[in-house]
Amino acid sequence: MTYSSLCIGVRNTLRGRGISGAELEARLIVCAAAGIDADTYYRCLGQTVPDRTMNRCEELLGRRLSGEPVAYITGKWEFFGLELIVDRRVLIPRIDTEILAEEAIRLAAPGVRILDMCCGSGCVGIAAAVNLPGSRAVLADISREALSVAGENIALLGLEDKVSTALADSLGEYDPSLGKFDMIVCNPPYIRTDEAPRLDASVKDYEPGIALFGGADGLDHYRSICSNWTGALFPGGYILFECGAGQARSVEQIMRENGLKVKSTVKDTSGVERVAVGQK
Predict the structure, then answer these.
(1) What residue segments make up the domains of the chain, in order of their start?
(2) Mean pLDDT computed over every residue of the chain
(3) I want to staple 11 with a disulfide (CB 3.0 to 4.6 A). Which of 26, 171, 214, 255 is the partner?
(4) pTM for the full predicted model
């Protein structure tokens, strides 16, 4: 069997299970099984697949059919044009979160210092640091496991001179030892706890609950950060939040109640108000 026919077979199996994005996922699974990148895969389409790769592909496909997200199977995922390490210690970066990174980059001044709260894999802060010359970023999370992944991504991309990690609780008090920042970006846990039974199995059974659930109304982290962490901002500094569907107006109100000026709300490609922007 060639790589091309193997990928077609995997794709058809995924489609038969109703998995969207089957063509992309099939390529990712085959590449992971073979231990090759996309460029090498396309050069090998007509080559015969070794038995060990066939066996590995069957194993990985079985994991996907059992519900495990392909990002955790391959151990990597693309965000804002960057290939990042991603595993079950962190949330899988979504395309919607790229809007948060894009808006942060748009608003940032030269030499900006950014705090990425609830950083997970570090995707937002890293994307900003890569695209903003002279910038510095601190990736903060309460999860030591998440910070380990973020640190791996910093090293992977050679960003040790401009990006660091810090253990910090978004539901706790601001630690002045972190210093001051021009911008806080945050994709907090924002799913209501009562929504847990209705989540897709690929989310609730695999992604870390600490990165998903934001309390009874999903707004606990917004309240705490606006109340306890705006002291980390220089005057005039920005705070940018990703919001769940229907949450933007509540997040704006929380900002106002804590003395922040609401600047804008940015919609995603589906028209959902996805990013709320405030200013100190």
Answers:
(1) 3-66, 79-279
(2) 97
(3) 26
(4) 0.94
